[in-house]
Amino acid sequence: MQGAKTAAKETAREMPHILVVDDEKSICELLEITFRKEGYRVEIANNVEGAKRKLESQIFDIIISDIRMPGEGGVDLLKFSKEIAPDCFFLLITGVPTVETAIAAINSGADRYVIKDHELVDQLRRAVREVSENLRWKKEAGYLRRELRRLTGLDNIIGQSPKMRAIFDLIQTVAPQTSRVLITGESGTGKELVARAIHENSARAQAPFITINCGAFPESLLESELFGYMKGAFTGANDNRHGLFQAANGGTLFMDEIGNMSLTMQVRLYRVLQEGKVRPIGSTEESDVDVRIIAATNKDFDKEIAEGRFREDLYYRLSVIPVQLPSLRERKEDIPLLARHFLEKFRKIMEKPIEGISPEAVRKLEAYDWPGNVRELENTMERAVALETTSEITLRVLPDRIAGYSSAISSQTDNHSPVNFPEDGVDFEKEVAGAERRYLLAALEAAKGIRTEAASLLNISYRSFRHYAKKHNL
Fold first, then answer.
1. Whole-model pTM above 0.70?
2. Beta carbons of 135 and 16 less than 8 angstroms apart
3. Largest CB tally within 10 Å, which of 16, 57, 186, 235?
4. In the predicted structure, residue 355 carries a pLDDT above the cut 60
5. Domains of the chain
């Protein structure tokens, strides 16, 4: 009996997830009942704004939307869905069929166009069944493509913001080269993922990709790890052992936290990079190595060099191609996408029937500044999935520092609060943009997502509110 229940749950989970959008509640209820009886998972929304909120917090396979509704219409929702969920099938329905609306629907990318008449339910049933079959074949046909993306390393780098698209383009550009790469960015931004993607997209992809955290070893141990040693070179050296340079020969050596390397080790590394030769500890012989170095750090190298902690000549050897990874707070438009990715990952691992994230929880995740970046978001979502007992992630399972984050906005932006300037000054436009975004999110939260009320709280017009919301990708 238990096995049958589990199988039924798995079957339901594999059925396409449908979003029905129509300002006529009777149509929504009719279609919800019809498709639920056939085993589909169904959500409904009575306007485009409500549909957008659902799209931001859940993953849908099929959208059925009326074209004409008060405010934004089905074509507006179609354009939005193509940005946030481009693989979602979109069926437009209308009670006033015209050539113009049909052309607009097709030109906007609709997969189906159905007339709202007495055969509406039967037409939609047939269309949804066809789409479901196409989805099944698409998943099977796309298996090799997904495997290829996984093997190239890009599958693990999640993001669709302009800054991340630029990183993807840069990876594809620099990967085929042999030049050294220096990846900089805050802790938790995914430096190793980028390094691995560069390797997997290079001609060295079949050769080893070796990683070492330079900050995790004392100087003497780091030297033996990198360059190897001969038997008897020091106490405990009971045999000859290759170092990581030799292990990575023909491939890539990723040196993380290279800014923590001592000056003595920097001198040795510089010589290896200059000559392409390695001499193990205790040996008088050198051996040639062909290794591409990708280094990473979260330190400010200008400051490190100025204060004598890092050699300038080594820096220029390493940073032939510099890659600066953005922090998560610099690409907040990626937060819902990342959160859904981690939700899917952990719900499968923990075998929990959690289908989405509540709009309130999404807004809190977007408002928070994420000092630990993507790694902190991943840990947060793992905790949330572990604690959640309902069908969606709610505010209740988010840590207090995130769930209560917007309450600190007033104190942070108070005109009478003292402002402390760092030595190199501040990025004024970035700070102002951050304050704008925090106020917008706080107003939306207070207004429970109703934009007209949020605009009223901010004492601006609805048109101005829409302008700022578009500016900040809300």
1. no
2. yes
3. 57
4. yes
5. 2-141 (3.40.50.2300), 153-324 (3.40.50.300), 330-414+424-471 (1.10.8.60)
